[in-house]
Automatic annotation (TrEMBL):
Belongs to the aldehyde dehydrogenase family. PROSITE patterns: ALDEHYDE_DEHYDR_GLU (PS00687). It comes from Pristionchus entomophagus. Gene3D superfamilies: Aldehyde Dehydrogenase, Chain A, domain 1, Aldehyde Dehydrogenase, Chain A, domain 2. This is aldehyde dehydrogenase (NAD(+)).
Amino acid sequence: SGLSESSIRMLSRGASLLSSATSASSSLPLSLRMASSLLISEPKYGFLRELGLKEQNHGVFDGSWKASGPVTASNNPANNRPIAEVVNGTVEDYERAISAAKAAQSMWADVPAPRRGEIVRQIGDKLRSQLKNLGHLVSLEMGKIAPEGVGEVQEYVDICDFATGLSRTYNGQIMQSERPGHMLLENWNPLGVVGVISAFNFPCAVYGWNNALALITGNALLWKPAPSTPLTAIAITRLIEDVLKANDIPTGLCSLVCGDSDVGQALTKDKRVNLVSFTGSTEIGRIVGQQVQGRFGKVLLELGGNNAIIVADDADLDMVVPATVFAAVGTAGQRCTTTRRLIVHESKYEEVLERIKRAYAQFESRIGDPLEPNTIIGPLHNVQGVMKYKATIAEALVAGGKVEYGGKVIDKPEGGNYVLPTIITGLKHDAEVIHRETFAPILYVLKYTTLDEAIAINNEVAQGLSSSLFTQRIDNVFKWMGPKGSDCGIVNVNIPTAGAEIGGAFGGEKETGGGRESGSDSWKQYVRRSTCTINFSKHLPLAQGIKFE
Ligand code: NAD
């Protein structure tokens, strides 16, 4: 595309300033004109003030709010108008924040884990009290529909509950020692500071998964959110600040630095950051992963996906159709777990394709402003996304693909980054365009003959996040789950690829990065294991029977 996210932001900010300058209010002083062009000034968006947001917000929190970097506007993808402004952080601001986080962690590590869990429980309650407001901010800033925005906050609430229980139950083992009068056990200690770099498409839940587990295990956090979703990060950090203050805990424990890749780089290269939890594209994850590994830090990578649903010859199509539509067009195709490939048995291919096309057509009238109750598909997050959507469809056509439905940008009077969800057939399963993750609602439908062939197609892409098989046959299910089945981190049966629950470990293999977050034993990512051998005898039997005398 040639345009960086920040230059697009500046362009649309410029356009909006221009339109306000030529409006009837042009006799007003510039500062007032700027403020009145922001959505936060409109009564409709009063919930932003309830979250403590203002026309201009400091994007750095190190125990207090101050920032010295460039001022950017966060835009509403439904019309590309600025919501409010943010003073971003610089590398110098980052230095203050990391020092504050490190200092707070030293105190926090001494707090008993169940007490840490109590603080996380309070964070969950605080989020509950702002569930709708925060969910609507996620919608407004990211572009996902309101139930998805609220659902993201609910995920954060749920992981707080999960982590609260875990704070009383996470434990190590006692092993049998070979030596008399010896005890062999393991203890889990905090890592120190966990740096969280997050993506635009889950501006709340991803931080929540990291925040709750890292806190109960005794770590501090430093968060660098995506440059285009800073307001969600600021609002969340303000809620956490309230809880920490009320409990006399140093608030730098959950530090925040809004900013661009320069801040991300400072964090990635910093030895004081013991774990870098990175969620984003495989392209950037590859750089971050190698840099952190280069300094022998720990890294948790949650990168791109290229997820498939396989429809077996015995699949219940009444389940397949809604599942596919939900997972392929939900969040306008901007989930890491979005279904991008539909691999259908040849005996069901025509019927599935026809039914999915009909379902897509029904939703056309419900593409619009994510905060409107009737909307089921919102806009793409930014102009860049629309350009990538167009380029990908053009490439698919050149490769011999056929657009069965969609393939068009929607021009609405209010502007916005709207596109029609798209179904493409006629491509080879290994076409280059299919093997790439395009972050837009484009679904490739493919045909297969044997289940082994379908599994091979599922596994042949570089990414390995989520996968689903629709079947009624038990032998298919166990093959799919087993060593010759799906090679993804998420292996579903009769449910879509999207919509994971917090109770399981979330993440994927291969170029998805191998990280695991959220439930199961993902908490182990945030601790270091100390294997302790305690000699409580009066003798010193050495290993291998060696006598050193
Ligand atoms: P992105 O890679 O462009 O950016 C992610 C974050 O990295 C942002 O905060 C960005 O500012 C930061 N960053 C950019 N350059 C950096 C650098 N050199 N060093 C350090 N940080 C840097 O991703 P995006 O466009 O925001 O998000 C979409 C991608 O995220 C998709 O590929 C999607 O599949 C993936 N994703 C994965 C998961 C998962 O759990 N596997 C979840 C959500 C999103």
